[in-house]
Each structure stands twice: as structure tokens, then as C-alpha cells.
Amino acid sequence: MNLVALVAALAVTPFGAAWAQVRDTGDYLRRMDTDADGRVALAEYQQWMGHAFERMDLDRNDVLDPEELPGGRGRPVTLAGHRESLAEAFRRQDLNHDGVLDARELAAPPQ
């Protein structure tokens, strides 16, 4: 299961409930921006986007096995692989390549 499929699947599970409550880009930025500097760094992005992974990893082995994935099937997803996929998505969203995401970049889908 790739990152896009995993995120889409999580959005309709109880683990995705926090995402469903985000009302606008500013709200999204405020929730992700843990140091309140008005920008989202890679570590903040990975922490926010990785929350569902942590909740789903019931045996805490840093691997989502098929039975832990939505639908109970798919290839295992490692935490390291998930974080790398998030880093790739982050780099695609960082349109001005400054190493952080602002509200405008967060609102745009990854290129």
C-alpha cells in the first residue's frame, strides 16, 4: 500500500477522525506547527502525518502488518518507509524549496 492509498484509507477510519475536524488551511497549519513559528518543518509534518501509523501499529514493532492495515490486507509498511514516503511528499509540496511548508504550500497538493 503506497502513502496516498494509506492516507486515503486512514481518512475514513476512526484513526483519521482528527484530520476530518480540520476546518481550513490555517487550522491545519496551527495543528501541525508544534513550535508555532508559522511554518511546518519536515519533522512536524512527519509527526502529524505519522500519528495514524502509530495508532495502527498495535504490536509496536514499527511495521504495519497486513492485519493492521485498513481492509486487513496489503504489503507490510515499515515506519522508516512511511517516513521516507512522507519526506518525499513534503519535498514535492515545498514549492519554493526552503525546507518548510507555509499555509499556501500546505493547501496545494504535492506536485
UniProtKB/TrEMBL annotation:
<keyword id="KW-0732">Signal</keyword>
<dbReference type="InterPro" id="IPR011992">
    <property type="entry name" value="EF-hand-dom_pair"/>
</dbReference>
<dbReference type="InterPro" id="IPR018247">
    <property type="entry name" value="EF_Hand_1_Ca_BS"/>
</dbReference>
<protein>
    <submittedName>
        <fullName>EF-hand domain-containing protein</fullName>
    </submittedName>
</protein>
<feature type="domain" description="EF-hand">
    <location>
        <begin position="81"/>
        <end position="111"/>
    </location>
</feature>
<dbReference type="Pfam" id="PF13202">
    <property type="entry name" value="EF-hand_5"/>
</dbReference>
<feature type="signal peptide">
    <location>
        <begin position="1"/>
        <end position="20"/>
    </location>
</feature>
<dbReference type="InterPro" id="IPR002048">
    <property type="entry name" value="EF_hand_dom"/>
</dbReference>
